[in-house]
What does this fold into?
Amino acid sequence: MECLLAITIGVLYAASFYLLLRRGVVRIILGIALLSQAVNLLIFTAGGLREGGAPFIAEGQTALAATSADPLPQALILTAIVISFGVLAFTLAMVHRADQATGTDDVDDLKGTDQT
Amino acid sequence: MNAVTLAILTPLVTAVFCLFTLRSPRLQRFFGVAGMVVLLAVALRLMAEVGGGTIEVVRFGNWPAPFGIVLVADLLAGIMVLVSAITGLAVAVYSVADVDARRVRFGYYAFLHFMMFGVCGAFLTGDIFNLFVWFEVMLISSFVLMSLGGEKPQMEGAVKYVTLNLISSSFFLAACGILYGQTGTLNMADLALTAREMRPELLTMTAMLFLVAFGLKAAIFPLFFWLPASYHTPPVAVSAIFAGLLTKVGVYALIRVFTLIFTEDLLLTHGLLLGLAGLTMVTGVLGAMVQFDFRRLLSFHIISQIGYMVLGLALFTPLAIAGTVFYLFHHIVVKANLFLISGVTARYGGSFDLKKLGGFYAATPLLALLFFIPAMSLGGIPPLSGFFAKFAVVKAGLAGDTMFGGWATVLAVIALAVGLLTLFSMTKIWAEVFWKPAPEGHAPHPGHVPPGERFLLLAPVAALAALTLAIGFFPQFFFDFAARSAEQLLQPEIYIHAVLGRTN
It folds into this structure.
């Protein structure tokens, strides 16, 4: 399972970097969206995969059993998903506005602020 | 409630007040400035509490560390919150005259305070994932401030600023995930202990991820390209607070993780920082030389100054770290001030283009004096604050007790040369804007700005200039704080003990 996830993460990273290097602004935004998904999976995998160990404290116990999965990475991912959702929504609105203001979605044409 | 929590709550509450009064720019301006005054008072109280060397720890929900999230205020955090509050107040007052009612109706003050909320949170948190969240609070508010108004150059700058900062956030998050996977903790004090048991190559890899993430935010070489492309596009007040605070949050985060967590393979991590510091200083200052836009020129100087701070961190001796801390607060004050001044000259002269400005010395000698102070301080002329900041870092490099031997000397020499070139840039602005006669049809007209607004523009500038003078004339007082903060940073056991109650 780790192996499969590792490959998936690698492919996601590669795809997102490919998109980030494109010239279209929308493709770059898609690249960022993919990147955040890749990172989420990375946290999930790095946090340790465990099958069938739901993190419930059994009746009569006071602590989690050693065999249960760690719920914290999932909490981190949940937070990260919420943040990246908000940021993505903002970014799309910003790109729309940038398109209206500059009339282009090609980053090669967005050089106005880089010239001396 | 203690000052640590208040320092975070004050900007949040202010921002909410501003959101409720969106229709009334007058009320928003009132809340915007009043909120910063309260924040400054809170920051002073916080400084009074931690100034003596105690580390204050607040546990959320009273969960013991490392299980719950903690807020930790050590001396460095206290200093940073205080300087941020000072800059924030100056910018909030300046904004009253500088930011138009349309932007204010769209929530300028609310987002300014949301950004301060993120900045203060980032300085005070003791949890690495929490730091990520604060970074995001700060970033998304800064995205809004950057693009608020929607002018063409702003949007061009915003696209670059937003994209690169989001990529840096992904790196940061990935680094947090890997660190957690290896150590099973996110509490920074606990990480400092458990990271020592990590496999060294994994630890180094994580350190590199953090270096990329924070380096991009701090705009170190070669990750700085977003900065000069975007910082000169928003309204002056926004550029000023960005220039003063945001990159320094990145530097703060670098200091935090590279003094607390990644101290195992110093030659590699800090050696890399050393090299990057040199390249950052040189590329920044060389980039500035060819610029003729007031704010773009200053933006490049932010980069070169970041190099000095990273240099101090890399040298990793008590004097060098103290130099870095001193540099941090000197630089925030001076750089924000220079940006504010660029705004005043633009209001009087109608342009940010150095070639189209001129004759300011004859028209407003007071403004010339107010520019002269921070500009010479940035160039490192004694007895101004920048001299002592540079002096400490360079002296640490020449002292010969670093782990880099001759390389430290080389870097110190580079730092001196870069200081000279900085002075060259500052004299260029002086000659172009203040000294040369006004170009045809571009004479400065201070009279065109109503006296009330003129006062609001100049008062923050004068206050920050006075602070620069104070740091310059009483360096021992300020350097003492920096030195004690360096002591705390170089003995992570103090921090760890304050948070966890144990050091192993």
Residues 265-473 of chain B form one domain.
